[in-house]
């Protein structure tokens, strides 16, 4: 490739990007998101703007459209189109035992409290395609708690929930997942938890026999149960401060008086209006416990 040709391609890419940013202005994006909310009830208005802009732009380019208004017209005319677009507007990247020290912290700080309950209830909010649900189920099994536990696994994306129920993943992921499992304090052989065939693996169905998969939107839905543990990891970073406060308020209203909350390693509650309602158990890996003052205040 000649230097002139390469420079020409870069210039064309820059012009396309500028044109796309001009046509995909904040008003057009707001119209798109408002239309989605009115038609289908999904409220993306308080998602972080830069992240949502990138996802909308990617969808428009992939579908060879000119702007968000064209995308809105297609979505309003066809539920099928919306169902195809929705997963691309939501967050769906995960892996098993992501951030292994977090799961070590669960074993060290949370499991002893869970043992004191006759029944254990856990909420995995924003469970995506289920990797974290299976990770937690493995930990609970190895700690002897799975049979008396109920896990509520929720997500905004119906396709992700279906994939989580199926528990089928690419075999190529399992090398990294196995490393994570061992680093997270795994006490068995990870291969015992799945079967492999034709480049895919299927997780042991008994791991999710007590899992309830359900559609739940942190932007619009309400509290639905009391939990001793809530995991919502790497979701709040895609929300603006107002929606972060709403989600943390839901978690606070769902937690047992001394329940635990686990967030993603890049997330924080320090600037939230609910910061005083939680005590920090592990600052590096974002494990918190509901503060005693909180359940007295909100009782």
Helicity level, as a percent range?
A: 40-55%
In CATH, the topology of the largest domain is named Rossmann fold
Q: Superfamily at the CATH H level of the largest domain?
A: Vaccinia Virus protein VP39
CATH class designation of the largest domain:
Alpha Beta
Order of helices and strands, N to C? HHHHHHEHEHEHEEEEHEEEH
Low-pLDDT regions: 1-22
Report the C-alpha radius of gyration, rounded.
21 Å
Beta content: 15-25%
Descriptive notes:
- With 299 residues, this protein is α/β, with parallel strands linked by helices.
- Helices cover 46% and strands 18% of the residues.
- It is built from eleven helices and ten strands.
- The strands form two sheets. Strands 6-2-1-7-8-10-9 form a seven-stranded mixed beta sheet.
- Helix 2 (26-40) runs parallel beside helix 4 (68-77).
Core attributes:
single chain; 299 residues; alpha/beta; Rossmann fold; seven-stranded mixed sheet; 18% strand; disordered N terminus
């Amino acid at each position: 490739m000649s230097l002139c040709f390469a420079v020409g391609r870069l210039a064309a890419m820059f012009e396309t990007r500028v044109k796309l940013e001009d046509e995909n202005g904040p008003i057009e994006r707001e119209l798109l998101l408002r239309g989605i909310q009115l038609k289908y009830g999904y409220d993306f208005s308080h998602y972080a703007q830069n992240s949502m802009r990138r996802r909308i732009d990617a969808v428009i380019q992939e579908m060879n459209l000119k702007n968000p208004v064209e995308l809105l017209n297609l979505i309003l005319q066809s539920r099928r189109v919306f169902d195809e677009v929705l997963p691309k507007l939501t967050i769906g990247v995960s892996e098993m035992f992501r951030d292994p020290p977090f799961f070590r912290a669960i074993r060290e700080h949370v499991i002893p409290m869970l043992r004191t309950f006759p029944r254990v209830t856990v909420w995995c909010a924003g469970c995506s395609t289920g990797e974290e649900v299976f990770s937690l189920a493995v930990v609970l099994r190895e700690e002897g708690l799975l049979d008396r536990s109920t896990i509520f696994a929720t997500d905004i994306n119906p396709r992700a929930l279906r994939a989580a129920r199926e528990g089928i993943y690419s075999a190529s992921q399992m090398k990294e997942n196995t490393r994570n499992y061992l680093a997270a304090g795994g006490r068995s052989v990870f291969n015992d938890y799945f079967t492999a065939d034709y480049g895919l693996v299927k997780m042991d169905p008994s791991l999710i026999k007590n899992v309830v998969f359900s559609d739940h939107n942190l932007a619009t839905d309400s509290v639905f149960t009391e939990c001793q543990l809530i995991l919502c990891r790497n979701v709040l970073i895609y929300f603006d401060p107002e929606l972060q406060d709403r989600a943390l308020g839901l978690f606070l209203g769902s937690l047992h008086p001394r329940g635990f909350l686990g967030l993603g390693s890049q997330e924080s509650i320090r600037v939230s209006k609910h910061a005083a309602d939680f005590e920090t158990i592990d600052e590096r890996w974002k494990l918190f416990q509901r503060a005693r003052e909180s359940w007295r205040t909100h009782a």
